[in-house]
Design goal:
Blueprint: E1 3-8, E2 11-16, E3 20-25, H1 36-42, H2 56-67, E4 78-83, H3 86-92, E5 108-114, H4 122-139, E6 143-148, H5 153-163, E7 170-178
Antiparallel strand pairs: 1-2, 2-3, 4-5, 5-7, 6-7
């Protein structure tokens, strides 16, 4: 039996001669981003998710993007804890009085923990990695939201307890992930805060 493959844009058409045609749709975001600005325009904080599980392949893609984020002196002080167990995710919704309710519906979470003893730029390194994850999630057709943890002792203790993070690591944030169950408008380029931009001098 002879087999041949034909590639057409976003599809692979696989034909087993004399048998039948099988069309396989590639797992790509339906709303393909044509440039980085468009990706940024589409990325909004999503706090309500459907019950559809997030594929491990997409989580791994997001983590790869985080691992390629810039880090001061390439020290890479971060550690990422992936959470998909709802028995851990749902209690995360109570780690703060406000701002953590997205974990009532999130289908995955990524905790960003860092060893602050390694570098004085650890917070910046963690924030850059988290931003990479937020943008990668949007590019993969997922919703995502930053839940800030650092500086809130009780919240940090709760996240550390739920995910077995050692006391020697600081918990910066938890990224909530899932398929979007809410619609938010894209950023309007005409309404951006251009008054925040200064040329040559403040």
């Amino acid at each position: 039996m002879s087999i041949f493959f034909c590639i057409f844009a976003s599809e692979i058409v696989c034909a087993c001669v004399g048998v039948r045609y099988v069309r396989v749709q590639l797992a790509i975001n339906k709303s393909v981003m044509t440039d980085f600005r468009t990706l940024c325009q589409h990325r909004r904080s999503i706090r309500t998710f459907t019950s559809e599980p997030v594929e491990r392949e997409k989580i791994d893609y997001i983590l790869q993007c985080a691992l390629m984020s810039p880090s001061g002196k390439r020290i890479n002080p971060w550690e990422f804890v992936v959470v998909t167990d709802v028995d851990v995710l749902r209690p995360l919704a109570g780690c703060k009085t406000y701002g953590s309710q997205m974990f009532n519906t999130a289908m995955a979470g990524i905790v960003v923990a860092l060893d602050a003893s390694l570098t004085d730029t650890w917070q910046a390194d963690g924030a850059i990695a988290a931003e990479h994850m937020l943008l990668a999630a949007e590019e993969q057709g997922l919703g995502a939201c930053w839940c800030h943890i650092y500086g809130r002792a009780e919240s940090e203790a709760m996240v550390r307890s739920l995910t077995n993070i050692p006391d020697s690591y600081s918990v910066l944030c938890v990224i909530a992930l899932g398929y979007k169950n809410e619609e938010r408008k894209n950023y309007d380029l005409q309404k951006l805060l251009y008054n925040k931009i200064h040329n040559e001098k403040f």
